[in-house]
């Protein structure tokens, strides 16, 4: 842990992000943000078995704001669904952080089953864990308003995320992972790909579209950028609570014998390079031969941009969860 009189600087890895006309993508909250956030909170409080204090803690994190920033251009119905998904993600995160891997595996398997079977909520027992009931409700809502292919993409990637949550629980008390193992695990637990499915919710995806190299490249870059972005902004909170064993900053510190600032700078340079690659790809976006695939590819592009920008705004201007509000031009903070 750094000395209390040493300030840490979070590198400006977004410095190369275009601001000129022609890159008109920015995080503009949904016009109905307030009602979406209120309705999503009401949804969460409607579940039996969930304590009010737990809901209060989740709501203080302002997770529905993520949906309102990233999906501000979509319909209210779509944005609300993503707000519910964001709340569900962080319910899972908060609960499984304090459970053993056996309990986490049982919950994950039950949620996976609920996701695969839209409409299963009606047949569930009243005392079924609320996270499972949330999964069933979300899958039902998605399958009702989204295309079949988009819903399947959502379910598949959400289940991959749940598998990652189980793996993370199993690794919690083990030595810090290697960089390669950490990134492989974090790619699953970052939870971005189910959100990319939401960007495609109206799209009748053709077979093989999601396997196209260019689509996988764009999504892969986005996932890596968001992993590093989260690691840099969340490190202070996690190291203060002794939970930084699964943070990329700590992984770099251990792997290369670096101090906090050195690891931050290293991760910042790496992320800055990824951002430049992402921008180049977006600026030189190839035109796919199939017109339908090409149109959907551009939806993916816009969704990736919205995720990167939306999360940057959320970390630095919206949530106090990580203590990074108003970092200022020098982007420094005093370690907790």
From TrEMBL:
It holds the Pfam family Terpene_syn_C_2. This is Terpene synthase. Gene3D superfamilies: Farnesyl Diphosphate Synthase. It is an enzyme of class 4 (lyase). Its cofactor is Mg(2+). It comes from the Eukaryota. It comes from Apiospora rasikravindrae. Belongs to the terpene synthase family. Keywords: Lyase, Magnesium, Metal-binding. InterPro entries: Isoprenoid_synthase_dom_sf, Terpene_cyclase-like_2. Its EC number is 4.2.3.-. SUPFAM superfamilies: Terpenoid synthases (SSF48576).
């Amino acid at each position: 842990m750094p000395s209390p009189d040493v300030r840490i600087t979070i590198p400006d890895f977004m410095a190369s992000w275009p601001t000129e006309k022609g890159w008109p993508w920015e995080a503009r909250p949904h016009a109905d943000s307030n009602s979406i956030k209120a309705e999503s909170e009401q949804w969460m409080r409607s579940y039996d078995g969930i304590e009010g204090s737990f809901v209060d803690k989740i709501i203080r994190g302002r997770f529905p704001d993520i949906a309102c920033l990233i999906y501000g251009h979509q319909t209210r119905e779509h944005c609300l669904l993503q707000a519910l998904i964001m709340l569900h993600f962080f319910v899972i995160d908060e609960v499984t952080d304090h459970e053993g891997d056996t309990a986490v595996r049982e919950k994950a398997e039950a949620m996976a089953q609920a996701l695969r079977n839209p409409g299963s909520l009606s047949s569930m027992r009243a005392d079924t864990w609320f996270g499972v009931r949330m999964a069933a409700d979300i899958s039902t809502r998605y399958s009702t308003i989204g295309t079949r292919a988009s819903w399947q993409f959502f379910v598949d990637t959400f289940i991959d995320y749940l598998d990652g949550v189980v793996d993370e629980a199993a690794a919690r008390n083990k030595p810090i992972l290697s960089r390669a193992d950490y990134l492989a695990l974090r790619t699953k637990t970052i939870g971005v790909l189910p959100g990319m499915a939401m960007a495609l919710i109206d799209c009748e995806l053709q077979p093989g579209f999601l396997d196209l190299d260019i689509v996988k490249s764009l999504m892969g870059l986005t996932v890596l950028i968001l992993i590093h972005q989260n690691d840099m902004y969340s490190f202070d909170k996690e190291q203060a609570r002794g939970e930084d064993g699964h943070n990329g900053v700590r992984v770099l510190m251990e792997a290369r014998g670096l101090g906090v600032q050195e690891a931050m700078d290293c991760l910042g340079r790496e992320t800055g390079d990824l951002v430049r690659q992402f921008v180049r790809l977006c600026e030189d976006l190839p035109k796919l031969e199939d017109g339908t695939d090409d149109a959907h590819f551009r939806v993916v592009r816009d969704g990736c941009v919205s995720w990167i920008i939306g999360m940057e705004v959320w970390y630095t201007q919206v949530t106090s969860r990580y203590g990074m509000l108003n970092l200022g031009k020098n982007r420094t903070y005093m370690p907790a």
